[in-house]
């Protein structure tokens, strides 16, 4: 009897400085510890001297904590389109702005202020 083995392959991703990524600390994850997944911004890419593998340095967005030597196998890009989906799908025809998310309302106010030539208020 022949056994077929399936293997999932994902394309090798490269990240650039400023990319927002999701990172999972595999060791903490497999040990069942909390705090194993966080969102970070790529600060730098570098090549490990012994293996030649490209690793990344990240800064956690929730605590400004620096993480060094992150393996890209445990990182996933967080596309801007996903972060802005609520703005892109805001129900602009709704008379009630409560139906919009706060991000959509903020973006709409900024656009209206720019169109009117008024300065955009800073939060």
What can you tell me about this protein's structure?
With 123 residues, the protein is an alpha+beta fold. It folds into two domains: 20-78; 82-115, no CATH class. Helix content is 22%, strand content 25%. The chain has four helices and five strands; from the N terminus they run E-H-E-E-E-E-H-H-H. It has a five-stranded antiparallel beta sheet. The radius of gyration is 21 Å and the shape is elongated. The mean pLDDT is 82.
In summary, what is this structure?
The chain is of the alpha+beta class and 123 residues long. It contains 4 helices and 5 strands.
Identify the notable features of this structure and list them briefly.
alpha+beta; 2 domains; 5-stranded antiparallel sheet; 5 strands; 25% strand; elongated
Give the helix/strand layout.
Blueprint (H helix, E strand, L loop, with lengths): L19 E5 L1 H5 L6 E11 L6 E7 L5 E5 L4 E3 L2 H4 L1 H4 L13 H14 L8
Antiparallel strand pairs: 1-2, 1-5, 2-3, 3-4
Helix content: 10-25%
- Mean pLDDT figure: 82
What pattern of helices and strands is seen along the backbone? EHEEEEHHH
Global structural class: alpha+beta
